[in-house]
């Protein structure tokens, strides 16, 4: 007891000194409380108050992030690790959350719903908190808390409206699949804790304990842990939920689900691989092998199944599974140098997907459908939307002069460098699969202009294109995709 | 004398029972029960291992957080299953298949 009393003041001092490093997340927590208050009280007088509270919250969080740039520190007894990688990742996350919030506000503006929209913004803020935590930690306890915070918020976002049968089915599939994956991950974490007695996955005690443990048990525990990460990333074989949930959820929620959670999970996976592959133990190689195999299967499965989809949201789900494969490839080569390439690809992915969902949402509001067939002949009526959509398709394939091309080029060239320096065959297999699947993806992305411009519409409805805010955001994101595609140094120089 | 091994064997058994309940897929509530069993087997593991970690009590702390988070996700799960029941009048996952390839 005396021991505790002696260290208590030191401990308290340390905790107090660490609080300033927690500012961006602290801002989100405060705004979360304000958002609840706004939903309960002020929404009656002014319907948009909770929306503006959360927008202000993201902006505050972003600006309290800026002082952390180029000042790597750690706080709360090593629970938080703040470096440039996490600062940039959180910047991308906050930006994507801001855009998703505007999507939600625009999507439900015209609809009369019994549900209170303010709660959705509140839940989105907690999802942001979980994501931010995921990027700044190397401790398994905090990783688990962050993943659960994010997962529970996502379940609520998908199931909150339950307007029709499909939405509640998607929510149920999501919550059951997700809870099973996180339970399996928890069991794996408990095994890791038992082998090492330490929860920090970068610490030497952790790595030594894993090496000393029986090889079979370590492998099982690692596979269990990767189950939880794999669910968040939706790589094969944990992708089964993604198409159903993406199709069933409201379109702005799908825009959130397909972009932001992946940023957090990829950062975590990159940290794990960096910590384990630099230590020359067998499970470092095991991790590399696992990620290589999963990346190849994910790229192939995602792009091949996307070919025969007719629902636009379902197609985007498989396309994002395919992109997860590319992201895994980028994770694999990230340890060689700085994470600039990985961050660039993440940024490109987020921009492209948000723009694509902006157009899908705008079209859904005009035609009421998300099937590819319903786009037939609309190209002449809504030239702005479909021109933008086609360019985003080009970027998603990875053709110049777009940001998708630069991202893929950077990832390919660093994988090729790795292959030349080590001569390992898995890297060559990754390269071949990546090139092949990019060609495959051309066939389904080009269905969009094919239906819109070349197929005739069956009826002459008079739905003329009015320019809404969501289209404007889509156009801005598209021009960003182009601008960064032509001048990639603007973004790369920032990450360096 | 009850050793660590006994705890681990019990927790593996509970985990497998939970996994079976999930994979049998008869009823959404049964899946949630299976998930709860799996989480509790992990909690048992954590507490058993935590006995050897007298410095930080990492295992016990982890177990507490795991219990709280499991309760939260099960609460959300039950609410969602309720809304599914209102739409479909059944909670058998095999009958709820509007979304598929």
UniProtKB/TrEMBL annotation, chain A:
Q: Note the topology in the membrane.
A: Multi-pass membrane protein
Catalyzed reactions per annotation: a quinone + NADH + 5 H(+)(in) = a quinol + NAD(+) + 4 H(+)(out)
- What does the entry give for GO biological process? ATP synthesis coupled electron transport
All residue ranges annotated as the NADH:quinone oxidoreductase/Mrp antiporter transmembrane domain in the record: 138-420
Under Enzyme Commission nomenclature, its number is 7.1.1.-
Question: What's the top EC group for this one?
Answer: translocase
Q: What keywords sit in the KW lines?
A: Cell membrane, Membrane, NAD, Quinone, Translocase, Transmembrane, Transmembrane helix, Transport
| Transmembrane stretches, start-end | 26-42, 49-67, 87-104, 116-134, 140-162, 174-196, 216-241, 253-274, 280-305, 317-334, 340-363, 384-407, 427-446, 467-487
Q: Name one GO molecular function term.
A: NADH dehydrogenase (quinone) (non-electrogenic) activity
According to the UniProt record, one GO cellular component term is: endomembrane system
The answer, when asked if Transport is one of the entry's keywords, is yes
Q: Which InterPro entries match?
A: NADH-Q_OxRdtase_suN/2, NADH_UbQ_OxRdtase, ND/Mrp_TM
Cellular compartment(s): Cell membrane; Endomembrane system; Membrane
Q: Note the superkingdom of the native organism.
A: Bacteria
Q: How does it assemble?
A: NDH-1 is composed of 14 different subunits. Subunits NuoA, H, J, K, L, M, N constitute the membrane sector of the complex.
Q: Record's family?
A: Belongs to the complex I subunit 2 family.
The record's function comment reads:
NDH-1 shuttles electrons from NADH, via FMN and iron-sulfur (Fe-S) centers, to quinones in the respiratory chain. The immediate electron acceptor for the enzyme in this species is believed to be a menaquinone. Couples the redox reaction to proton translocation (for every two electrons transferred, four hydrogen ions are translocated across the cytoplasmic membrane), and thus conserves the redox energy in a proton gradient.
**Protein name as annotated:** NADH-quinone oxidoreductase subunit N
Task: State the organism named in the record.
Answer: Sphingobacterium alkalisoli
UniProtKB/TrEMBL annotation, chain B:
Q: How does it sit in the membrane?
A: Multi-pass membrane protein
Identify the InterPro entries for this entry.
NADH_UbQ_OxRdtase_chain4L/K, NUOK/Mnh_C1-like
Q: Does the keyword NAD apply?
A: yes
Q: Which UniProt keywords apply?
A: Cell membrane, Membrane, NAD, Oxidoreductase, Quinone, Translocase, Transmembrane, Transmembrane helix, Transport
Stored Gene3D superfamilies: 1.10.287.3510
- The record's top EC class is translocase
- Any stretches that span the bilayer, and where are they? 6-23, 30-49, 61-85
State a GO cellular component annotated for this protein: NADH dehydrogenase complex
Superkingdom in the source lineage: Bacteria
Known EC number: 7.1.1.-
> Which reaction is this enzyme known to catalyze?
a quinone + NADH + 5 H(+)(in) = a quinol + NAD(+) + 4 H(+)(out)
Q: One of this protein's GO BP terms?
A: ATP synthesis coupled electron transport
GO molecular function per UniProt: NADH dehydrogenase (quinone) (non-electrogenic) activity; quinone binding
Q: Where in the cell is it found?
A: Cell membrane; Membrane
General function of this protein: NDH-1 shuttles electrons from NADH, via FMN and iron-sulfur (Fe-S) centers, to quinones in the respiratory chain. The immediate electron acceptor for the enzyme in this species is believed to be ubiquinone. Couples the redox reaction to proton translocation (for every two electrons transferred, four hydrogen ions are translocated across the cytoplasmic membrane), and thus conserves the redox energy in a proton gradient. NDH-1 shuttles electrons from NADH, via FMN and iron-sulfur (Fe-S) centers, to quinones in the respiratory chain. The immediate electron acceptor for the enzyme in this species is believed to be a menaquinone. Couples the redox reaction to proton translocation (for every two electrons transferred, four hydrogen ions are translocated across the cytoplasmic membrane), and thus conserves the redox energy in a proton gradient.
Task: State how it assembles.
Answer: NDH-1 is composed of 14 different subunits. Subunits NuoA, H, J, K, L, M, N constitute the membrane sector of the complex.
The record's PANTHER family line, in alphabetical order, gives:
NADH-UBIQUINONE OXIDOREDUCTASE CHAIN 4L, NADH-UBIQUINONE OXIDOREDUCTASE SUBUNIT ND4L
Family in the record: Belongs to the complex I subunit 4L family.
Q: Tell me the protein's name.
A: NADH-quinone oxidoreductase subunit K
What taxonomic classification does the UniProt entry list for its organism? Bacteria, Pseudomonadati, Bacteroidota, Sphingobacteriia, Sphingobacteriales
